[in-house]
Design goal:
The protein is α+β, with helices and mostly antiparallel strands. It contains three helices and four strands. It is about 40% helix and about 25% strand.
């Protein structure tokens, strides 16, 4: 069986709203239970209870991130300037955790451990892209920008962020295409 036979979900949710809190980064892993005493049972349970992403497709794991931003504006000497840009990154990774029954063969434990490690490696790739996206948003918002009005400046900065998020959404999709949703990172573990 293929690594992500039923497609790993690494599609990411990107929220395009101003931040409510100042520049924080957070990362958390949440686990969902998988049960089975054979590789086939584990695969079937992943298919049954794996996370569903924004595409509506169920997968083996899922990484979601949110980038939010805020900035101050100051109108002075006939132009509006942005300052104090804060960018928040919130990443949640959903991974399976096997609730191992007693007396399973050691080979199955080794298979699960290999599968889990490769699955985590793939999701870590999505996390790294999310971190790079937040860094790029910070960089672009950090430039001292001005406009004739504060409303025009707000639109300009929001459009800048939306452009960056679009670029990184494509990088996420390219990562999945390049790895075939993680299948190329291993040879049929589970």
């Amino acid at each position: 069986m293929g690594f992500c036979r039923h497609q790993c979900l690494a599609v990411l949710l990107i929220t395009l709203v101003p931040a409510l809190a100042a520049g924080k980064d957070s990362f958390r892993i949440e686990y969902f239970a998988i049960r089975g005493a054979t590789a086939q049972e584990l695969r079937a349970d992943l298919k049954r209870v794996g996370p569903v992403g924004e595409t509506g497709i169920r997968g083996d794991a899922y990484t979601e991130y949110r980038i939010a931003w805020k900035f101050s504006m100051n109108f002075k000497d006939g132009s509006c300037r942005a300052r104090d840009a804060d960018v928040d990154l919130d990443v949640t990774m959903l991974l399976p955790r096997w609730e191992q029954p007693p007396e399973v063969p050691p080979e199955l434990v080794q298979t699960w451990n290999r599968f889990s490690a490769v699955l985590r490696e793939h999701e870590d790739g999505h996390h790294r892209i999310a971190v790079a996206a937040a860094k790029e948003v910070r960089r672009r918002l950090g430039k001292r920008t001005r406009a004739a009005s504060c409303e025009a400046l707000k639109v300009k900065l929001d459009d800048t962020v939306k452009t960056v998020l679009g670029e990184y959404r494509k990088k996420q999709a390219d990562f999945d295409a390049d790895t075939d949703f993680g299948r190329k990172q291993t040879t049929g573990i589970l």
